[in-house]
Specification:
Elements lengths: L1 H16 L4 H12 L3 H10 L8 H26 L4 H33 L4 H21 L4 H11 L3 H27 L7 H28 L4 H10 L5 H12 L6 H36 L1
């Protein structure tokens, strides 16, 4: 709740201040709300943070944000095509039932699924896991839950040694598809439209970087994490990425607000760069402040 209020509200208010209609403002709120699970997980792995005490807190926030998309995306899709409130409510209930069913299977039968998919052959593991992702993501998309959420739920269902083997096998595909994803979004953006929104994107990025840092710091503090860990958790959550682009892409495809695409692109680009830099420099900055206080 704290994460949602602190990070959805700036985008929503910015949309209203720009004179956009409520639906465009809701989309911008979604863009500023959700962190990039892909960017953050990669940065934390490269920095050797995966065994840190604050890491479960960060990952829990990312999981909840991704699950929130199972409610948010169907609602936005219904509103964009102008369907009734009753239709929107049905779509949300279907999405919740689908997510609940998959989560139940993941928790109750995750070990059995992993044992079934596990094999000595790398090819069988690759094809089985990739096929499961395509199947569940397709069903999720058919039920208007979002294919990304469906694929995410498959990842939750897998456990044990299979996880590490699947990561090694599929990580090249992850990097390839991530690059293609950003490439296709870039094709929809005219570079000439970026300069007029750049200052606004920077201002919105700075505000929501601070709110994400506050979110991570507060969550880690509630988990009893020491001071450095709180700041690391906050810095880790700053980056925005794939889901923000998906949300902006919905508005661009619907022709909702001409500035939504360029503003979101500039905003995501800024925080996708700032987030990893902040994560890498937060500990040296804290150490420098500590030394300065000690010497003073």
């Amino acid at each position: 709740l704290m994460d949602f209020v602190l990070n959805f509200t700036p985008g929503l208010l910015a949309g209203f201040m720009l004179g956009w209609n409520p639906l465009a403002a809701l989309l911008l709120g979604g863009v500023t709300y959700i962190s990039s699970s892909g960017v953050i997980a990669k940065v934390m792995a490269e920095l050797g943070w995966m065994s840190n005490k604050e890491t479960p807190t960060v990952l829990s926030i990312l999981v909840i944000e991704d699950l929130m998309m199972a409610i948010y995306l169907p609602l936005i899709a219904v509103l964009l095509i102008g369907q009734s409130f009753a239709t929107g409510l049905i779509s949300i209930l279907v999405a919740l039932a689908t997510v609940g069913a998959v989560l139940y299977v993941a928790v109750r039968y995750g070990g059995s699924i992993s044992r079934f998919a596990s094999h000595e052959s790398d090819e069988i593991i690759l094809l089985t896991t990739f096929g499961a992702v395509l199947l569940v993501a397709g069903i999720a998309q058919r039920l208007q839950v979002s294919s990304a959420v469906g694929a995410f739920l498959v990842g939750i269902a897998l456990s044990g040694p299979l996880v590490h083997r699947a990561q090694n096998l599929i990580s090249p595909l992850r990097d390839l598809f991530a690059a293609q994803f950003f490439f296709f979004f870039g094709l929809q953006i005219d570079p000439a439209t970026l300069p007029p929104v750049m200052l606004l994107a920077l201002a919105l990025g700075i505000v929501t970087a601070l709110t994400k840092v506050l979110t991570g710091w507060w969550a880690a503090r509630r988990a009893g994490i020491e001071r450095k860990g709180r700041w690391r958790a906050g810095a880790a959550l700053v980056a925005r990425g794939e889901f923000s682009i998906v949300i902006a892409g919905l508005g661009v495809s619907a022709g909702l607000e001409p500035r939504l695409g360029p503003l979101s692109a500039a905003y995501v680009l800024f925080l996708a760069v700032l987030g990893p830099i902040l994560a890498r420099t937060i500990e040296p900055l804290l150490d420098a402040v500590t030394r300065k206080r000690s010497s003073g």
